[in-house]
């Protein structure tokens, strides 16, 4: 689809008009004899203008869009594209036919070829004079000549159809005009075009057209323009002007004085009395509001006319308008200012005479937009729209079976009324009527229900750590209740209780000791409407959690200290003691971070009962947790004279004095970072205990306390402590952790029971201490100054110091050896595209060697060579032109121990693959161009030539994508040998592929002095100079659109050839080249050409 913009652009290209067709039948057109023809059957065409003269009526205007400026420009042109303006004659080769108008359109569709019209108007607009237009149908063209003139009209006459008596200053408009001298004035311009005229046109070609001015444009295309000229008119005879196609004609008309002095309008049959609600309809104003629009019957309007001569008349308004050649204009602005009751005067005008029409507005409209503007549980405020026809309103409420007036508002602009003393949650009916001094409107009704009363006595009646139970008084005016909780920064409904008799609700899933805000409102449902009361709010809190882990954390003969877990949900705690037969509060702790309390003034070894609860205060509300109870007792005296009476590597025996105040004793050992009870002795007469299963050479701490049992309560004395130790254990897991050719590093398991270690080496026939390690966390030691690949013996023992005592473990022995020296001079001694051979110096200190390759992200052993005399290894299965990393180390075996040297590393690479498909891509008498396949495994190539009895490098090509090279400076018709190999560089290493050889030869030189030595009418004898570099010659003739060999001359001495079977007096083209054969290979020289003509 074209947009408007693009359509205008298309229209602007009027210089070439083409009639396009969408479906054609090439042989659908038939002549009078029934013969069919198509576009290719057209022999010639001729175009004759039907209208050869063009004037302003043929001028058209379009707008052309300029892409560079984004604007439209106005373009004018003369319309020569109308088929009605030409006669097209088509000659079909012995048969011709003429077409015009729609016949031409049908012809182009049938022939399947458009009629293309070219006039050049796109370059410049035609001026007056002759212009040539070219018409093309298929491949045939014809020209036609058009003449552009100022007008085609020779003469023009315009005659009014009846005598024009224009009323002075009526039927026209006042305008500011300028005369030919530029003088500006204001005058009355008459609408002369509003009258009827007969027009007669005589064209320059003699054609005559007669018609009315109203039909002129449709018949002739001319638009008549009427004017009174530059002369101001006056009452009496005047001259008017009509211009058609640039030619102007005069005509006469009269201006008469306005005979009417005044006009009074009135309506007959009571049509001037309109009733609100009946005579009209409800309409919408621009602001969306509605009003009653009155309609009056204009046909009922009559006019009382007073003429200037003093006479009077009374006409229906239509008859008066006809007499005055005018119309009645009445100003009606109801939509801006709706009419009210009373009289309305409408300004009117007829032929410039001002008057008015008076209407009587009666009746009154019902009140509209009656609604409830606001309501509470005991009041309703009604509102309504202003009634322009009223002076006041009466509002009534239906009560006890009758309507009771509740308000009389003596103002039509007061549009609201509040009524009180209503019952909550009740439905009420109201009605309103408007009134004025003469009328009362019908009633407008509405029903409103008051809101239910607010919920009363809203309170918290129960709480736990995770719930709150809310209660309230029953609201008999409601259907039910909606309960909301404030959370996440907004009020969220948590319950809808659909019965007004349900007056409590339990909210669960709450957090302990947390303040919550709730609000509740009643709702009343009536039909589809729901009314809500106001909100009643309550802030309360959940209980804190119970105090937990209440224990006696300390006691003495006269005090007990209680402690408990901190309750972060609480404000503080209240502690009570049972004494004198009742619970007595002994403390209120006002911080939840205070989690202990000491009760003093107690009796030794006596049972006591306590209870504690948490409390939480938020605002004026305090919530308590439940009680947590504890029964406990005071302590007996401490155990005395605790000593170690015996020890072994795995046991310690402890003893103490008897405690007659105790029930028994509890013995604890400190292990694993805490005190652990190892024995409970249930008789105070048993005063010793053997602790077994201990660890050698380990310091132990013990403590003992007496305990007293009374009922379910047990009280303990204070602890009596003792520290002692066992003998240490032997050092374990002694191994050689590292070695070199001159050192051994020993390591062992940490002995946590020891203070340190003592290390000895056997040398010169005895054990010699080589180190004392004074920390049990130091679990290794490096012995240096040793000999490579040599066996050594060591022993180690732990020692434990506690106070002034030192204890030793037994010895742990180890025999091991030093490493051989590192492998040296590791090199790549051979490589291929899939293997690398490594070699190294012999290591006489080693048993053998282990070779590793880095692959798959880790080192992998590829060979173990079990003889130190084997000093090379070939790694196979590799990828061409690839870098590989290897490392090798020597190993030494003595008994069950194997020691390794350090690694020696080497990075190297495989060779690239051989260069393939080496060929001679081009040759000349002094050069050869070699080419080969690209070797993607290589960095580049090295090219060598065999000369002077040896191979000489002639080129190094440093890119594997360069796959050809031209060798110059060679001798014509000579055999040459070349070889090429790829090379790969990685880091500082370069690897070469094997050589690829190629033998070829240069071309002989071109044949010289090629000419025709003899010609006949059917033969040509060609000759040339001897080519000493050639084996022979090949002669070719150009015939049949290609070169054909006509002779192969062997031997370079034969320098003549006759070509026969040629045509008389005919030009021929020949070419010749020398060739050279060496070792079965043939090389051709370049061509030499000649043109020869046979004789007549």
Number of helices: 4
Largest sheet strand order: 1-10-11-12-5
Total number of distinct structural domains: 11
**Portion of residues in helices?**
under 10%
Overall pLDDT confidence: 87
Q: Rg to the nearest angstrom?
A: 65 Å
Class of secondary structure makeup: mainly beta
GO molecular function: cellulose 1,4-beta-cellobiosidase activity
EC number: 3.2.1.91
Enzyme class: hydrolase
Protein name: Exoglucanase B
List keywords for this structure.
single chain; 1096 residues; mainly beta; 11 domains; 5-stranded antiparallel β-sheet; 4 helices; 3% helix; cellulose 1,4-beta-cellobiosidase activity; Ig-like_dom
Describe this structure in words.
The protein has 1096 residues and is an all-beta fold. It folds into eleven domains: 145 residues, no CATH class; 104 residues, no CATH class; 103 residues, no CATH class; 79 residues, Immunoglobulin-like (Sandwich); 80 residues, Immunoglobulins (Immunoglobulin-like); 83 residues, Immunoglobulins (Immunoglobulin-like), CATH 2.60.40; 62 residues; 83 residues, Sandwich (Immunoglobulin-like), CATH 2.60.40; and more. Helix content is 3%, strand content 53%. It contains four helices and 93 strands. The strands form 26 sheets. The protein has a five-stranded mixed β-sheet, with no helix packed on it. Strands 40, 41, 43, 44 and 45 form a five-stranded antiparallel β-sheet that branches. Strands 48, 49, 51, 52 and 53 form a five-stranded antiparallel β-sheet that branches. β17 and β18 form a beta hairpin. It is flat, with a radius of gyration of 65 Å. The two termini are 70 Å apart. The relative contact order is 0.03. The N terminus is likely disordered. Keywords: Glycosidase, Hydrolase, Repeat. InterPro entries: ECM_Regulatory_Proteins, FN3_dom, FN3_sf, Ig-like_dom, Ig-like_fold. GO terms for molecular function: cellulose 1,4-beta-cellobiosidase activity. It is an enzyme of class 3 (hydrolase). It comes from [Eubacterium] siraeum.
């Amino acid at each position: 689809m074209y947009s408007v913009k693009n359509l205008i652009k298309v229209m602007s290209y009027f210089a070439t008009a083409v009639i396009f067709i969408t479906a054609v039948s090439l042989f659908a057109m038939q002549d009078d004899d029934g013969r069919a023809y198509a576009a290719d059957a057209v022999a010639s065409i001729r175009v004759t203008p039907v209208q050869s003269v063009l004037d302003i009526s043929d001028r058209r205007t379009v707008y052309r869009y300029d892409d560079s400026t984004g604007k439209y420009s106005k373009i004018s042109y003369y319309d020569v594209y109308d088929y009605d303006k030409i006669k097209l004659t088509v000659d079909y080769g012995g048969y011709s036919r003429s077409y015009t108008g729609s016949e031409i359109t049908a012809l182009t569709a049938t022939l399947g070829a458009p009629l293309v019209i070219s006039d050049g108007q796109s370059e410049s607009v035609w001026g007056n004079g002759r212009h040539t237009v070219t018409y093309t149908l298929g491949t045939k063209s014809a020209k036609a000549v058009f003449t552009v003139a100022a007008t085609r009209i020779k003469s023009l006459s315009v005659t009014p159809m009846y005598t024009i008596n224009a009323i002075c200053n009526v039927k026209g408009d006042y305008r500011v005009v300028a005369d030919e001298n530029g003088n500006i004035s204001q005058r009355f311009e008459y609408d002369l075009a509003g009258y009827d005229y007969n027009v007669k046109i005589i064209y320059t070609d003699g054609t005559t057209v007669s018609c009315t001015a109203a039909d002129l444009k449709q018949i002739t295309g001319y638009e008549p323009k009427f004017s009174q000229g530059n002369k101001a008119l006056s009452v009496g005879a005047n001259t008017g002007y009509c211009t058609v196609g640039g030619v102007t004609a005069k005509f006469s008309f009269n201006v008469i004085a306005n005979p009417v002095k005044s006009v009074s309008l009135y309506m007959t049959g009571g049509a001037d009395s309109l009733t609100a609600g009946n005579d009209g309809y409800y309409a919408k104003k621009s602001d969306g509001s509605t009003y009653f629009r009155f309609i009056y019957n204009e046909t009922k309007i009559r006019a009382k006319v007073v003429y200037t001569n003093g006479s009077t008349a009374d006409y229906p308004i239509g008859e008066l308008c006809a007499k005055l050649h005018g119309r009645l204009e009445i100003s009606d602005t109801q939509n801006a200012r709706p009419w009210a009751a009373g009289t309305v005067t409408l300004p009117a005008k007829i032929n410039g005479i001002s008057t008015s029409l008076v209407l009587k507005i009666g009746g009154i409209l019902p009140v509209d937009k009656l609604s409830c503007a606001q309501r509470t549980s005991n009041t309703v405020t009604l509102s309504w729209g202003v009634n322009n026809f009223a002076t006041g309103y009466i509002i009534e409420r239906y009560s006890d079976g009758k309507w009771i007036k509740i308000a009389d508002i003596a103002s039509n602009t007061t549009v609201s009324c509040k009524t009180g003393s209503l019952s909550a949650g009740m439905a009420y009916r109201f009605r309103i009527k408007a009134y004025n001094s003469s009328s009362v409107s019908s009633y407008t009704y509405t029903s409103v229900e008051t809101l239910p009363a607010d919920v009363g006595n809203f309170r918290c009646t129960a709480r736990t750590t995770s719930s709150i139970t809310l209660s309230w008084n029953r609201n008999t005016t409601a259907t039910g209740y909606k309960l909301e909780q404030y959370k996440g920064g907004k009020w969220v409904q948590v319950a809808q209780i659909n019965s007004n008799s349900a007056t409590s609700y339990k909210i669960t899933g709450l957090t302990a000791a947390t303040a919550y805000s709730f609000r509740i409102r009643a709702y009343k449902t009536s039909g589809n409407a729901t009314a809500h009361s106001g909100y009643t709010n309550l802030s309360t809190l959940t209980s804190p959690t119970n105090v937990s882990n209440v224990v006696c954390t300390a006691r003495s003969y006269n005090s007990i200290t209680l402690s408990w877990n901190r309750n972060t949900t609480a404000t503080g705690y209240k502690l009570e003691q049972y004494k004198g037969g009742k619970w007595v509060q002994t403390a209120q702790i006002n911080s939840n971070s205070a989690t202990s309390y000491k009760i003093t003034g107690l009796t030794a070894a006596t049972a006591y009962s306590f209870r504690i609860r948490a409390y939480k205060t938020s605002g004026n509300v305090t919530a308590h947790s439940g009680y947590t109870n504890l029964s406990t007792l005071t302590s007996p005296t401490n155990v005395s004279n605790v000593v170690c009476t015996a020890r072994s590597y795995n046991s310690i025996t402890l003893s103490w004095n008897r405690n007659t105040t105790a029930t028994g004793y509890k013995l604890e050992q400190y292990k694993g970072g805490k005190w652990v009870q190892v024995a409970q002795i249930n008789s105070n007469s048993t005063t010793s205990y053997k602790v077994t299963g201990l660890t050698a050479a380990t310091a132990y701490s013990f403590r003992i306390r007496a305990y007293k049992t009374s009922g379910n309560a047990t009280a303990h004395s204070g602890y009596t402590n003792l520290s002692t130790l066992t003998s240490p254990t032997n050092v374990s897991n002694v191994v050689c952790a590292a070695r070199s050719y001159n050192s051994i590093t020993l390591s062992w398991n940490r002995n946590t029971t020891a203070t340190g270690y003592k290390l000895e080496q056997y040398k010169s026939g005895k054990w010699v201490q080589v180190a004392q390690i004074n920390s049990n966390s130091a679990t290794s030691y490096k012995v240096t100054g040793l000999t490579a690949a040599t066996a050594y013996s060591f022993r180690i023992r732990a020692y434990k110091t506690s106070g002034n005592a030192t204890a030793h473990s037994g010895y742990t022995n180890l025999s091991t050896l030093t490493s051989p020296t590192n492998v040296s001079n590791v090199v790549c001694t051979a490589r291929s595209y899939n293997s690398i051979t490594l070699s190294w110096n012999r290591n006489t200190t080693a048993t053998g060697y282990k070779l590793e390759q880095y692959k798959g992200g880790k080192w992998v052993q590829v060979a173990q060579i079990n003889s130190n005399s084997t000093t090379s290894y070939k790694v196979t299965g590799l990828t061409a032109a690839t870098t590989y990393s290897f490392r090798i180390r020597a190993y030494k075996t003595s008994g069950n121990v194997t020691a390794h040297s350090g690694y020696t590393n080497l990075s190297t690479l495989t060779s690239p693959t051989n260069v393939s498909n080496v060929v001679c891509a081009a040759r000349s008498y002094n050069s050869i161009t070699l080419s080969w396949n690209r070797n993607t495994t290589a960095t580049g190539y090295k090219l060598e030539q065999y000369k002077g009895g040896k191979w000489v490098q002639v080129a190094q090509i440093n890119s594997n994508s360069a796959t050809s090279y031209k060798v110059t400076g060679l001798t014509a018709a000579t055999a040459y040998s070349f070889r090429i190999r790829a090379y790969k560089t990685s880091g500082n290493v370069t690897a070469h592929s094997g050589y690829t050889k190629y033998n070829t030869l240069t071309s002989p030189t071109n044949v010289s002095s090629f000419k025709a030595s003899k010609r006949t009418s059917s033969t040509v004898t060609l000759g040339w100079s001897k080519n000493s570099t050639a084996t022979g010659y090949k002669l070719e003739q150009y015939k049949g659109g290609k070169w054909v060999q006509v002779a192969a001359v062997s031997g370079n001495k034969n320098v003549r050839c006759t070509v026969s079977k040629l045509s008389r007096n005919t030009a021929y083209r020949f070419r010749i080249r020398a060739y050279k054969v060496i070792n079965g290979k043939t090389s051709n020289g370049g061509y030499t050409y000649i043109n020869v003509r046979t004789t007549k």
